């Protein structure tokens, strides 16, 4: 088990567009393990590679509750291929700890990705799982959740986090 440091806002590495994974080698498998360990330790329901300083299109997600078995999703090069509906709920980010806001997102999505064996997988998600997948996939394009807010609300939020993470 290997924990990685989670980069905090306003680290510039959180704003980069990530590169697709070419070959799934041991380095990528180790990164998947580290991401899951780091996410569970935080604890969080999702983590993207750029949050630990790796500029690669990889995310891990697990929205299961304590009563359920772990349901870890490890997604390489994830792409949202379908989306519909709307949901509005409170959201936070391990890279901006302590700050939350209501964010509007698609309710239902289909994500296409590769698993750790290189198999193509399709995930149909709605509600919380859909929200977390959208949040983590946004990280791969350097997008943070407050980017989704309306202009004035966003300006106020940025003022608050700029003060907190200065
Ligand atoms: Ni996040």
Features:
166 residues; alpha+beta; Peptide Deformylase; five-stranded antiparallel β-sheet; 7 strands; binds nickel (II) ion
Ligands in the model, by name, code or SMILES, are:
nickel (II) ion
Number of helices: 3
Round the mean pLDDT to the nearest integer and report it: 96
* Strand element count: 7
User: Major sheet, described briefly?
Assistant: 5 strands, antiparallel
Shape from CA axes?
globular
State the secondary-structure class.
alpha+beta
According to CATH, the homologous superfamily is Peptide deformylase
Number of domains: 1
Radius of gyration, Cα only, in angstroms?
15 Å
CATH topology: Peptide Deformylase
What's the level 1 CATH class? Alpha Beta
Major beta sheet, strand line-up: 1-2-3-6-7
Which CATH architecture would you pick?
Answer: Alpha-Beta Complex
Distance from N terminus to C terminus (CA atoms, Å) equals 31 Å
Q: Helix and strand string, N-terminal first? A: HEEEEEEEHH
**How much beta, percentage-wise?**
25-35%
Sequence stretches where pLDDT stays below 50 over 5 or more residues: none
Binned, the helix content reads: 25-40%
Short précis:
The chain is built from three helices and seven strands, in the order αβββββββαα.
Description:
This protein is α+β, with helices and mostly antiparallel strands. It has one domain (12-165): Peptide Deformylase (Alpha-Beta Complex). It has helices spanning 26-41, 127-139, 151-164, and strands at residues 46-48, 58-61, 73-84, 87-91, 101-105, 108-114, 120-126. The strands form two sheets. The chain has a five-stranded antiparallel β-sheet. The protein has a two-stranded antiparallel ribbon with strand order 4-5. The longest helix is centred in the N-terminal third of the chain and has 16 residues, at 26-41. It is globular. Nickel (II) ion (NI) binds at residues 93-95, 135, 139.
């Amino acid at each position: 088990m290997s924990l990685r440091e989670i980069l905090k806002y306003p680290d510039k590495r959180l704003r980069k567009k990530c590169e697709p994974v070419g070959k799934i080698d041991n380095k990528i498998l180790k990164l998947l393990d580290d991401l899951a360990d780091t996410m569970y330790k935080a604890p969080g329901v999702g983590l993207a590679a750029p949050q630990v300083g790796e500029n690669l299109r990889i995310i891990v997600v697990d929205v299961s509750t304590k009563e359920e078995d772990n349901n870890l999703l490890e997604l390489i090069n994830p792409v949202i291929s379908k989306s519909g509906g709307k949901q509005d709920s409170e959201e936070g980010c391990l890279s901006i700890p302590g700050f939350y806001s209501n964010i509007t997102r698609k309710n239902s999505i289909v994500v296409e990705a590769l698993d750790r064996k290189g198999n193509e997988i399709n995930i149909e998600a709605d509600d919380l799982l859909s929200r977390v997948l959208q949040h983590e996939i946004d990280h791969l394009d350097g997008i943070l959740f407050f980017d989704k807010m309306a202009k004035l609300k966003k300006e106020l939020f940025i003022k608050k986090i700029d003060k907190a993470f200065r």
